[in-house]
Structures are given as structure tokens and as C-alpha cells.
Specification:
alpha+beta; Pdz3 Domain; 2-enoyl-CoA Hydratase, Chain A, domain 1; 3 domains; 10 helices; 27% strand; ClpP/crotonase-like_dom_sf; PDZ_6; signal; PDZ
């Protein structure tokens, strides 16, 4: 297998800064380029003319990559014109973008919001719901440091309307907790239901400002009293203080014997952190040494991330025989930005710092079947894992809910303190299939390509993840034993959110910070720049 270069973007961050420093809207003082920044409808100058021309110039080096900033004196118009040219060159649906005068928009971010298609899919959803930007410093901090801040809780909200607003009574549960986070230290547990926040009634109360401030702290060091009811109905009040914590992609693993078979279980929550590679290698080494014959991969909360890491996991599941001379994914571009790229099943450890494959072999269990636990938060690189394995005829059994439907990706691109994410490719498996924009759906008897053999089962908040009696894992074990779905498999309904962004207003609404949605629930996998088998 050949490998030439890895995309160095490693993960995505939790929040974005909507503030772009500028010197005002007048461009005459700092205009560079001999009139090159003038807009003419339908005419697109090379993006290099405007690249790194910034209204506010950074000096020195990026503290996370040690790369010297390339910024040079420019204007807001330069920044907007770079966006226009870059997007026209690389956007997957560039011919569906209306060419509007950037002078009509006060900031590059405001202009970027309209540089996309506004078409709808056949189901009525936005064709492009994944177009966003983020402050580069925050992006670097998260991708290079694997750190976050807040409480460390992934929420599961129910009783939401189509706009994400709670209907009464409001229902909000703790779905997962980051180990070592403020929530873990304070004593929250999976399945806790929120009852009060700083004394304000969460279920039916009107004090939205207090509820938002207590549930979604905006800075570290904010302390709040949150009253919860556990799965047994007992109430308790927890004092929790927001703070920084490390993210743990692999949260639970287990190996046990069921129906005479050795079953391995792993909960994997994000492909966005390259450090997860070592955890996966360690766990799969254990699975191999324990002669695991059945495997359950829990991706119910995995919003996606690095396609390279997804490819590695697929190889560790399937092994040499199943993946030999097969492609994991092919990236389909717009025909002018890049040629289609083929991504193989990576069988080596990756040196993320230098962007290459090492000569260290990955462990593998070499199975012909895998069980994947899923939800509407199973997105992007997680869906690529399911689709990529199906592309080589591995028997993938999907247990849980319909996935979120993200067969698209991008290469995060920096310019003038902001990192931009625009859809640049779609992905297809070895059989050429990749149309699952409405998600991959578990069905006992699949009839369509986006339907996967499996069972629809609710997320069971009454049990810890990895507990053999937890609903989804229990259903997988039932299927392992009997080859069919349990008779009372429940309908899947809940929605999840993990944002740490405050929302103010009536009625109370699950936070809708755009970057947070894209990253945690709709994360789109970042590709390799050039890879060939």
C-alpha cells in the first residue's frame, strides 16, 4: 500500500468565535494587489491573489503547530474575495452558488454563510447543512490538545419540536460523562434526569436565563446547583463547577463469553482525536489475544472525524484477507479542485506529527461480521466505517437507530485567523455506493442500499454503557445468539446534544451553536490529501 501525505487537521473544536477583528470597512488605506480585489460577477480570480491578506495581521507562530503565520497586510474585501475564489474552486456544488457581491456583507463570516447551495433534498432537508467556520486558535487548541471545557456531559434531550425547542414538560438526561471531567468529579451518572437548576424548575418553569446559565456555562469556574432524579426515582442536588478536561474517545471496553462465543465490546466516541489511535491499538491487541470471535463497536455517540482513523479501525475489524486489494473509500470531488482520491484500508500505525505511515503493523481480529451500535448521532466517519465495510461484503449488523446521514467531507482551510469548512467531496465505498444522505437504517429485512441488516432499539439510559443488560448491547447479544432481533425492540426516538454554548430566549431551546452542531453531531470526516493502495 502506498501512502504519500496525511491531512494534518486532526479534530474539530467545540465552539467558534463570531468576532473578526477589523480596521473598519474602508479598504483604501491597506488595498494591495492593484485592483485585484474588485468584484465582477461571474469572473473568479485565482485564490492565491487574496490568500493571507488580512485586515488584522497575526505575527509570530502558531503555538500548536509552530508554523510561522503567513498573514500580510490586507483588507476585509481581500478576505471575502479569497473566500469567493476558494469556494468556487473547491465547493462540491460550486455551480449552485449564487455569485453575490461581497460588498453587501460586513464580515467574511457573513459572506461565507451565503457561499453554498440552498437546494433541498428529496426529503425536504437542506442539501448542505454542514457549512461552517471557526476561530483558528480554538480549532488548533482542540485538535492539537484534545482538551475541552464545560462540565463534560453529553445531554440527551427529548420532547423537542422541529426547531429544537423543548415542549413541556421539558425532558433532559445525562447520556455520557467524560472521565475525570467536572461532571464526573461532582457525581453525575448516566440516566440522571434534570429537575431543577439553581432552584429554577426545569420541567415547566419560565426562568430560561437561569436554566441556560446553569446547564450551559460559558466560562470555566462557574458553579451551579443542579437537581437530578436518578433512574430509581431518587432526587439529589449536585454542585458542579465548569472547568477544563481531556476527552476520552475510548470510554468502555469489555470481553465476555456469551452463548459459547467470546464477545468483545468497545465504546468509541470520536474519530476527531488522533491520540485515539493508541487506545484502539491497545484494545484490539487485547481482543486478538483473547481470541474474540464476535465484536460489538458502540458508535451511538460518535459524530465522526478523521477518515484515516476510520480506515484503521475498519482494518482492525476486518483484517488482511477481507481487505486485500479492496478500497475503503473513494472521494469524489467537483472535477476541478482535485481528482478523485482512493483511500485504502490502512494496516499500519500513523505518525500524525509527520503525516506518514510507519512500519508498525496494526492488530486485527480478522472478522467477517461486526455489530455496530448506532443513533442519529452516528455520523460521517462512523457512517463511512459502516459503508466501507459493507463495500467489501463484511456482514455489518446495525443495532440502534438511523444514522445522521453525512456522506460528505472537507479539508479544513485557514485564512486570516479563521478556519473554514465547506463541502468538497462525497464518499463512496468499494462498490461505488455512498448515497445515504438520509442516514443508514437498521432493518430486519433490508430492501434498499441505505438499509442495513439489524434492529431498531432505543438508547437505554437505565444502564451503564458496556453493561450486557443495556438495551442496545443486549439486543446485539440476542442477535449473536439467535440471528434475529429481540421481540420487543423499541422504537428509537431521542436526540442528543453536547454543546457548552449558552442560549437565551423563550421558549427554552437546546443550544443551536452552529459549530457545535457540525462538530459533535454532524462532524464531517477530513480526508487524506493523496493516498493509493
Amino acid at each position: 500500500m502506498k501512502f504519500s501525505k496525511l491531512q494534518k487537521g486532526i479534530t474539530l473544536a467545540l465552539s467558534m468565535s463570531m468576532l473578526v477583528a477589523c480596521n473598519g470597512d474602508s479598504d483604501s488605506d491597506n488595498d494591495i494587489g492593484g485592483g485585484d480585489n474588485s468584484w465582477v460577477a461571474g469572473e473568479f480570480k485565482a485564490k492565491e491573489i487574496f490568500a493571507n491578506k488580512c485586515a488584522v495581521v497575526r505575527t509570530g507562530s502558531d503555538p500548536y503547530t509552530n508554523e510561522v503565520y503567513k498573514d500580510r497586510a490586507g483588507t476585509l474585501t481581500d478576505e471575502k474575495m479569497w473566500l469567493r475564489s476558494w469556494n468556487h474552486e473547491s465547493y462540491l456544488w460550486f455551480d449552485e452558488v449564487e455569485d453575490v457581491d461581497p460588498a453587501n456583507y460586513s464580515t467574511p463570516l457573513a459572506y461565507f454563510e451565503v457561499l453554498k447551495t440552498f437546494a433541498k433534498t428529496s426529503s425536504g432537508a437542506d442539501k448542505d447543512n454542514f457549512h461552517f467556520a471557526q476561530d483558528t486558535a480554538e480549532y488548533r487548541k482542540r485538535t492539537q490538545g484534545s482538551a475541552s471545557s464545560g462540565y463534560g456531559i453529553r445531554w440527551q434531550a427529548r420532547n423537542l419540536d422541529a426547531e429544537g425547542r423543548f415542549t413541556l414538560p421539558r425532558t433532559l438526561y445525562v447520556a455520557t460523562i467524560e472521565p475525570g471531567s467536572p461532571a464526573d468529579t461532582a457525581g453525575f451518572i448516566r440516566g440522571d434526569q434534570i429537575i431543577k437548576v439553581d432552584g429554577a424548575d426545569f420541567l415547566n418553569g419560565n426562568d430560561v436565563e437561569t436554566l441556560n446559565a446553569g446547564l450551559f456555562p460559558t466560562n470555566n469556574g462557574q458553579s451551579h446547583d443542579i437537581t437530578v432524579k436518578d433512574v430509581f426515582g431518587a432526587e439529589r442536588t449536585i454542585t458542579v463547577t465548569s472547568g477544563s478536561y481531556d476527552l476520552s474517545p475510548v470510554k468502555a471496553t469489555n470481553t465476555f463469553v456469551h452463548a459459547g462465543k467470546t464477545v468483545g465490546y468497545i465504546q468509541f466516541d470520536t474519530f476527531n482525536i488522533s491520540d485515539a489511535q493508541d487506545d484502539l491499538i491497545n484494545k484490539f491487541t487485547q481482543f486478538r489475544n483473547q481470541n474474540v470471535s464476535e465484536l460489538v463497536v458502540d458508535l451511538r455517540y460518535n459524530g465522526g472525524g478523521l477518515l484515516a482513523l476510520s480506515s484503521q479501525l475498519a482494518y482492525m475489524i476486518a483484517g488482511d484477507v477481507n481487505t486485500q486489494n479492496r478500497d475503503y473509500y473513494t472521494l469524489k470531488y467537483n472535477g476541478k479542485w482535485s481528482n478523485d482520491e482512493t483511500i485504502g484500508f490502512y494496516d499500519k500505525k500513523i505518525d500524525w506529527q509527520n503525516g506518514n505511515l510507519t512500519n508498525i503493523d496494526l492488530p486485527t481480529v480478522g472478522l467477517n461480521k461486526v455489530y455496530v451500535l448506532s443513533s442519529d448521532s452516528t455520523c460521517s466517519a462512523s457512517e463511512a466505517l459502516i459503508n466501507g465495510l459493507k463495500g467489501i461484503d463484511l456482514d455489518v449488523v446495525l443495532i440502534g437507530g438511523q444514522t445522521c446521514g453525512k456522506p460528505y467531507g472537507f479539508v479544513p482551510t485557514d485564512n486570516c485567523s479563521t478556519t473554514y469548512f465547506t463541502i468538497q467531496f462525497s464518499g463512496v465505498n468499494d462498490k461505488g455506493f455512498g448515497e445515504y444522505s438520509d442516514g443508514l437504517i437498521p432493518k430486519q429485512n433490508p430492501n434498499f442500499q441505505n438499509e442495513v441488516r439489524g434492529c431498531t432499539v432505543s438508547d437505554d439510559l437505565t444502564r451503564p454503557l458496556g453493561d450486557i443488560s443495556e438495551g442496545m448491547l443486549s439486543a446485539a447479544l440476542y442477535h449473536i445468539e439467535r440471528g434475529s432481533c429481540p421481540p420487543i425492540a423499541a422504537n428509537y426516538a431521542p436526540k442528543t446534544s453536547t454543546t457548552a454554548k449558552q442560549v437565551v430566549g423563550e421558549p427554552l431551546k437546546m443550544p443551536q451553536d452552529r459549530t457545535q452542531q457540525m462538530i459533535e453531531n454532524n462532524a464531517i470526516f477530513t480526508p487524506l490529501e493523496t493516498t493509493n493502495k
